[in-house]
Amino acid sequence: MNTIINFQHLKQSIKKNAYTSLYSNSTFNIQHLKKYIKLYSPVSCLLIPISLFLLLLISTTSIAQKDSDFYSRSTGKLPSLAYSMGEDRLGSPKMGYIDSGILFHIVDSTDTWYKVKLSNNRNGFIDKKYTTPLLAFTPKSNYYSGTITAKGTDSCYDIINVALEERLPYKAWMETNPSIIKLEIYGVHTNTNWITQFNTLKEVKDIYYNQVEEDVMQVTIHLKHSQQWGYTLTYAGNHLLLKIKRQPSVLLLNKMTIAIDAGHGGTNGGAEGGKTHIAEKDLTLIYAKVLQQAFKKLGIKTIMTRTADTTVEMKDRILTMQQKNPDFLISLHFNSSTSDTVKGSSTYYKHIGFRPLSQTILKRMLELKMNEYGNVGNFNFGLNAPTDFVNCLLEVGFLSNPEEEKRLVNPLFQKRVAQQIIKGINDWLLQCK
After folding, report:
1. Which of 427, 431, 290, 298 is nearest to 366 (CA)?
2. I need a surface site. Which of 59, 136, 263, 309 has the fewest CB within 10 A?
3. Does residue 26 belong to any structural domain of this protein?
């Protein structure tokens, strides 16, 4: 009697159907497996468990798992879409934060990530803990866009309202020269036959859309000012709202609200001085308070992300700033390197529309005879990620460099840094006029 196992067919099935056909409710479907094993003797009873073990071993090493190919909605505190599952100390590269309740088609997964199908030709990734599976959900064959309305409010915003049939995924970004915001909505077919614009608009110059792919709609908004002051994307029902912050009518520091972030804190100590052993979390708080006092003397209103050695999670800082809505934010940090010869000041931004502030502050820092460590863009740091307000991260210097460490802990130098930051902000405001 012969026992024949068709491993070639078994291998093809694993590649094609590992997470749908061969894996069901945490256990393998034995009846399905028998399609790939021809049984001719009792010896086969021993081969079935062996085959099951091989299937389990292979499928668990695959990105495709049992919880793939279904629909889910975003949930939790500041969910975000990522371009990839790549990881470093700053996390995976973000497309941007998204609203809750957004519909996603899950097509693949790892232990911690879902791969989502945004459109026919676009994919993204979302952390599993920011999703809620939908049971017995049947999507429409097509989702369509409706009217687009653009109007100003009595506060500091112009609002673009895009009517949709579902809370669909989106991505937005800034462009410069000319000053533009682009919004892409995924999984939607255009049925927008007009765009209504009102005279109450003060920042939006022009708005139009294109169907750039079969199921991707791109909305382009031209702004009146070269400097972008931020925007917020959120859903109201199935209407996607793009709230564009207007440039302040008076570009004076004492008419603005400035957020100051003392990096790290509490259980997050950050870097450490090579000789003084001062913790970065302590030094950032010292500098933040010195800067706050300098602003106070000029009659400038400030908001602090922390005022003591407390643990404040990054997302909590972002949510607080979104609620308090500062005109711009300065985040203070200190650098470190494995080489004690590396030194210099650097500034960081993520969104190109916010770069000018980081440039003018860095230029003023170099007047303190600090080496230039660079102006770094597309920086994936938490407080650089929000688009709601202009933001800049300043790495004042290197705690790992003995020469700079000595300067950084000097109270006189701390006051000089505060003055240079203020000068850099004023330079930036002059450019905005």
Report:
1. 427
2. 136
3. yes
Burial class (CB within 10 angstroms; exposed 0-12, middle 13-18, buried 19+) of 218? middle
E strand or H helix that includes residue 241:
strand 239-245
Q: Which token pair is 379?
A: 């920086």
Q: Would residue 102 count as lying in a domain?
A: yes
Pairing of strands 195-197, 145-152: parallel
Residues 261 and 128 in one domain: no
Q: Reduced to 3 states, what is the DSSP secondary structure of residue 282?
A: helix
- Compute the half-sphere exposure of residue 2: CA atoms within 13 Å on the CB side of its CA: 4
Q: Are residues 353 and 231 in the same domain?
A: no
Model pLDDT for residues 420-431, shown as the tens digit of each residue: 999 999 999 999
Ramachandran quadrant class, 431 (left: phi over 0; alpha: psi -120 to 50; beta: rest)? alpha
8 Å CB contact between 184 and 216 = yes
Q: Give this prediction's pTM.
A: 0.84
Amino acid identity of 137? F
- Position 44 pLDDT exceeds 70: no
User: Is 322 exposed, middle or buried (CB count within 10 Å of its CB: 0-12, 13-18, 19+)?
Assistant: middle
Query: For the residues 73-82, what does the mean pLDDT come to?
Result: 96
Q: Are residues 125 and 149 in the same domain?
A: no
